[in-house]
Amino acid sequence: MMRGNRSVTVLAVIAIIFLLDQGAPFFIPLFLSLLISYALSPVVDAIARVLRWRVASAALVVLAVLGLVGASAWA
């Protein structure tokens, strides 16, 4: 095994931790949007079978989610 690369590995881990700490305002919304995208993908696929346009079905799902959030905020 290569024992000389242990210090480089430690420095890389420290750099990654620092990058994630400083980049949190960017990475948290990015990962949250990816999570929401994967969660709503089956709904978009089901509506896309009816509408035939994935863009229209994605817009419909986004509008429905925003409507639900607005209705819950109103209540």
Protein model, in words:
The protein has 75 residues and is mostly helical. The protein has one domain. Helices cover 88% and strands 0% of the residues. The chain has three helices and no strands. α2 crosses α3. It is elongated. The mean pLDDT is 91.
Quick take:
With 75 residues, the protein is mainly alpha-helical. Helices cover 88% and strands 0% of the residues.
Give the topology, please:
Blueprint: H1 6-22, H2 24-51, H3 54-74
Helix pairs in contact: 2-3
Which features does this protein show?
single chain, 75 residues, mainly alpha, 3 helices, elongated
Shape, please?
elongated
Helix content: over 70%
Beta-strand percent range: under 5%
Structural class: mainly alpha
Number of domains: 1
Helical stretch tally? 3
Give the SSE string: HHH
Q: Sheet bearing the most strands, described?
A: none
Distance between the termini: 63 Å
Indicate the mean pLDDT.
91
Whole-angstrom Rg: 21 Å
Give unreliable regions as ranges: none
